[in-house]
């Protein structure tokens, strides 16, 4: 048994997850994934209720077709 008691500072964790530095990290990762996919894809990020969110998506019909055929977005995550 441990003698230490851990108390989570929920407000501190929330400020980290919604902060500017986290947004920069998430945006950087989304841009890297988008660049691996090609020009028919785009990325977006926003601050949600609990954390910063980013998404990469097919922005053209050609990109949608490419993603359906080749799983481009899934492969770009690796």
Short description:
With 78 residues, the chain is an alpha+beta fold. It is built from four helices and two strands. The protein has helices at residues 10-17, 20-37, 61-70, 72-76; strands spanning 41-47, 52-58.
Can you give a write-up of this model?
By secondary structure, the chain is an alpha+beta fold. The protein is built from four helices and two strands. It has a two-stranded antiparallel sheet with strand order 1-2. A hairpin with a 4-residue loop joins strand 1 and strand 2. The longest helix has 18 residues, at 20-37.
What key phrases describe this protein's structure?
78 residues, alpha+beta, two-stranded antiparallel ribbon, 2 strands, 53% helix
Class inferred from helices and paired strands: alpha+beta
Largest sheet, in brief, is:
2 strands, antiparallel
Percentage of residues in helical conformation: 40-55%
Integer-rounded radius of gyration: 17 Å
- What integer is the average pLDDT? 94
Can you tell me the overall shape? elongated
How much of the polypeptide forms β-strand, as a percent range? Answer: 15-25%
Helix count, DSSP H or I runs of 4 or more residues: 4
Q: How many strand elements?
A: 2
Poorly predicted segments = none
SSE topology string: HHEEHH
Order of strands, main sheet, comes to 1-2
Intertermini distance: 40 Å
């Amino acid at each position: 048994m441990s003698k230490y008691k851990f108390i989570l500072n929920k407000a501190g964790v929330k400020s980290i997850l919604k902060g500017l530095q986290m947004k920069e990290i998430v945006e950087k990762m989304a841009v890297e994934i988008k660049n691996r996919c090609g020009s028919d894809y785009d990325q977006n990020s926003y601050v949600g209720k609990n954390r910063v969110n980013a998404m990469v998506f097919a922005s053209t019909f050609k990109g949608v077709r490419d993603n359906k055929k080749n799983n481009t977005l899934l492969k770009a995550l690796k």
